[in-house]
Amino acid sequence: MSLPRQVMASPLPGLDARRGFDRQMSMVVRGGEFLFVAGLTAVDPNTGERIRGTTMSETHQILANLRLLLEAAGSSLDRVVKVNVLLQSMLEAPNVNEVFAGFFPEPPPARTVCGACLPDGARVMIECTALA
Amino acid sequence: MMTLKLARSAIQPKNPLLNVSRSANLPHVPGIRVGDYLFLSGMGPIDPRTGGRNHGPIAEQIRATLNNVKHLLESAGSSLERVVRVHVVLADIAHLDEMDRVYREFFPVDPPARTAWSMQLRFGNGCEIECVALVD
Questions:
Q1: Domains in chain A, ordered, with CATH?
Q2: Does pLDDT of B54 surpass 90?
Q3: Residue B57: which domain range?
Q4: B interface with A, Cβ–Cβ below 8 Å
């Protein structure tokens, strides 16, 4: 029997990139035992509007949205296996760490942080793999 | 709980010209199958008829790359419909909209989770795309 593949419904209209930004992507896809979450930038979860802020405030917003997405899919932040963080400026990495510590219970997930050019002026983008 | 040891094996494209890691003697394989998951290496805009690079307009590069990804998936018993996660790396983030326009030809319904960003790429490539998929 083949592993199930399922696109998970977004819990709030703002957390749907296909509707909000006309981007051809699903936010959360289940594949077998794992949930794959798309790269998230800071948006208002109700309206989908971009939130521009500091790296710290954007990280906070993204992780709050990530929690909503995971919980709607039957998972949670403590089921996250691996996180990739893309930063417009690597100088901001310590600020990201500070926000991270407030979201992930011990032990936090495996993580990679790297510098990148991000779309639409976002300072942070975060994606993850979690257990379904 | 019963613990199963998953099998791990390398996958190959049916078209040997797309096996860039082998032809360029690079220390990686085109992809690895673990259990019923496929983890593909980053694929670039390779011309499947010559094995050379296709450095045309970005739309053409995206199309060539995704066709190659499709070929590799199908060579390994999967398909674009079974992709769960995609990484699209662009040399220039200004190409994001153009990438998305071509991308939706390949993933018209229930598209995978995607992360797209820009950073330095090798060989002058305009894009590199990797993915995780399930076998059928």
A1: 5-131 (3.30.1330.40)
A2: no
A3: 8-134
A4: 35-37, 81-82, 84-86, 93, 96, 100, 103-104, 107, 110-119, 132-136
Joined tokens for residue B77: 């018993």
Give domain status of residue B67, yes or no: yes
Residue in chain A nearest B102 by alpha carbon: A24
The chain-wide mean pLDDT, for chain A, equals 94
Alpha helices, DSSP H only, in B3-119?
20-23, 58-75, 96-106
Q: Who among B110, B118, B132 is closest to A7 (CB)?
A: B110
Q: Which residues in chain A are contacts of B86 at CB distance < 8 A?
A: 25
On whether residue B124 sits in a domain, the answer given is yes
pLDDT at B25: 87
The answer as to whether B72 is a domain residue is: yes
Q: Are B6 and A32 in contact (CB under 8 A)?
A: no
pLDDT tens, residue by residue, A103-117: 999 999 999 999 999
d(CA B125, CA B49): 18
- Best mutation target among A25, A87, A120 (most B Cβ atoms within 10 Å) is A25
Question: In chain B, how many domains are there?
Answer: 1
The whole-number pLDDT of residue A20 equals 61
Has residue B3 been placed in a domain?
no
Q: Terminus-to-terminus CA distance in chain B, angstroms? A: 26
Q: What are phi and psi of B17, to 5 degrees?
A: -65, -20
Instruction: Give tens-digit pLDDT for A58-94.
Output: 999 999 999 999 999 999 999 999 999 999 999 999 9
